[in-house]
Amino acid sequence: MNGELPRVLTLKDATMLVVSSVIGVGIFFTPGGVAKLLPSPGWFFAAWACGGLLSLAGALANAELGAMFPRAGGNYVYLRAAYHPMAGFLVGWLSFFAIFAGTVATLAVGFTLSLQSFVELTPFTQKAAAVVVIWVCTVVNAYATRAGAALNTSTAYLKVAALVAIVLIGPILGHGRTAAMPFASAGTATLSSFGVALSPVIFSYLGWNASVYVAGEIESPGRNLPRSLFWGLGICTSIYLLVTLTFVYALGMPAMAEGAKGMPDVGFQAGKVLFGAKGSALVSLMMLVSVFGCLNANILVGPRIAYAMATDGLFFSAAARLSKGSGTPSIAVVVQAVTATLLVLSFWDLSRVLNYTTFAIVLATIADTSALYVLRVRDRHRERPYRAAGYPIVPLLYILANVGIAVSMVIVNPIECGTSVLILLAGVPIYILFAQHARRRGTTGVS
Description:
mainly alpha; Amino acid/polyamine transporter I; 18 helices
């Protein structure tokens, strides 16, 4: 059946969706790479704080846009309204096939890395485990949105409690630290390296806008959507700063920055230092819960893009079909799972998938923030339950910062960035085909 998605998500559900979408594998694996690029503690912590501030700047704009258009689809909806259905489709296409499917694949790979602390996995069983966890979450979310939200909220509570325990208990009751002067600088940094270092940081904050994609399912979205963004992001930024502080305390800045790409398993090593031989196993268990929750959140959120495009005639019509009883876009959920599975089977290098996904995120966020300026002029009379604080300066700074990050990424990782651009451009002929078909059918969503 086709129709409107039921509004079954509370403020708590939406906030925990943001928390669960953000806190995943990144905070355990990326600090080493950031420390390699920024071996000075001042620069290192500035990058994590900057990631939170950049996300907040984006959240201010998305809070206004999401409250204006309280329906499924997120930035696809804004760009369609601000520019043209083609602009909305291209960003929606990129978000669905690169950002969310890529994130699901990355998280599934991260899940198997944590799982290897408990069982020995061959290359084949690693991929099999990654595929299995994708489909377990897919079945839950295809069954019912409430079931997916309940699983998400439960795992969000568990991961927050576990990370807070590391911060509070580790330095006080733990076994100590490895470096006499953990906050000593291990080198210098430049503005260029700072821009490149923001790539893994931004990936670690990915998901701060999760609730805008399910705006059509949130109760009282004009009030609860902005709150979910700000509360969720505030929780995540606070936890990230405290956790990275604890990692540096345990391991020391020089040790974290060692190696070709920095210490690759900061979370494991910090757990071992703070809690002894069993510490890495405890961190591994925590990571399994964290990654599983983040994976589930992305599987819940991403299909709403395909659903929104399909309702406008710009995607396969089956993606707009809702399950009887639960009102879940189950076919769109399955399509995303198939795409993520193909990515897992095709690309196994975590860092390459991360860069590919992050560059797509940067492109999409630049586009949807620019829509705020266009809609302030073109649609000035539309009701705005929330107006972005700091407009027009803060959103502009957010756009400029992301442009700088994009340039740095292209210089350092041209292949991954080029792949994201090719995925975006591949959407042009696809849009033309869907738009022609929609016009023949008289679909009103296309112009």
